[in-house]
Amino acid sequence: MSVVVAMPDVLRVHAMDSVAVALRPLSREAAVTVGGVALAIMEDIPQGHKFATRAHAVGDRVVKYGLPIGVATQDIQVGEHVHVHNVKTALDGEQVYSAEVARGGLATATSASRTWQGYRRPDGRAATRNEIWILPTVGCVGRTAEQVARAAQARHAALIAEGRIDGVHAFNHPHGCSQLGDDLDATRALLAGLAANPNAAGVLLLGLGCESNQLSALLAALPQTARSKVRTLSSQSAGDELVEAATLVDELVELAVSAQREDLPLSALIVGLKCGGSDGLSGLTANPMLGRFSERLAASGGTPILTEIPEIFGAEQALLDRAVDARTFASAAALVNRFKRYYLDQGLPVSENPSPGNIAGGITTLEEKSAGAVQKAGTAPLASVLDYGGQAVEPGLALLEAPGNDAVSSTALAAAGATLLLFTTGRGTPLGFPVPTVKVASNRALALAKPHWIDFDASRVLYEGEQAADAAFLETLVAIASGRRTAAERSDQREMAIWKKGVTL
User: Where does the SAF domain lie (predicted)?
Assistant: First the structure.
């Protein structure tokens, strides 16, 4: 049984920090202790927000997580609220990153990995679910795909109830036509990656016929090892497309029912790391918890995938310093600068973040948001860099090209091969994605208010300590990977989104 301890009032993350965080609302004139030093709070501080632990003059760096998160825009006294009214970002465009770093080596687990019950696919990859997916090549047949999926769910309800398959799902999207060049290529790569995901035991690619994203080109983009589980249908060439699609889905179901769960090592997991609706506690509770799991997963030979490139701006050097070799360092640095150039070419600042919800939750600048966000990867060495629509094929931490948008980046993680998404949040969201999406609350209030959204309360680290909370988190992940449905799955929250960067014809 876990030992519950009294939660502290405040937390200073790093000894070098010039601010501390209120773990509960603090009233003006409250007395607190930070680093053994007593100080008085000068104004009301909401939960998750920061206050100064030393005086700042205009232009001084504000430090949290041991990293600069902005500069003071006015004098700030000890105990005063530190937020958007007196701090601004220091981010500005592309930069040259130092390559004079100590390269991180891939670690090796020193003890037996925790096992889970999953499906081993013919190509050797492991799945957490045994599902049939219907992927439209173009938005014109998105609703048709949904009709086919609903009918198949009803037709195979007995098999689903018995656990022989985990469901039939369609993923609608509005793209696939009126696209050109790299924009069309990216859409095609994303859909090919989804079709190859191990959680899809069978896939129906449903086309219209006249779209830019032709079925033949999409099939050619699929990995050779995934093509045997894929069926295709062009709606314009079919007689009754609903009848013909049902026949193909039934054929895929017959193939899928033979799969059986078996004991698999932790190293068989490919896990996507995501945060959305973050607050001031996300970087203190939920994200570090994911980081400790990521370290364990990477050390065992598994693959955690980090993305949301704009949300590492300002904290990227610490990540780059863990690249396993010079080539990985150069690829990651180029990816970050390429993403900054994407902003600058649109006439936008690279620091156009955090969101209104982030700010309300206590996050002041993009540097602060990034410093908290990169903690989802812990200190795992950076082993590979993936383009948007790319597949994770190497063990160890991967960095994936995708924006911060929840639906776009989560879909990209699934297309990269993630069979489980770990999604931290301080504000909450009901949304789920193509693969099981584990919602991790950063604070207890959210976990208690939204149990139909949240799968784990990471604030347990404050009440029970890291060791007990981490052990409970691992058990939750093992249970979900082994078939227990997430809150989003129970609510039938499953969406996808494609990152469209080009012109529309």
Answer: 17-88
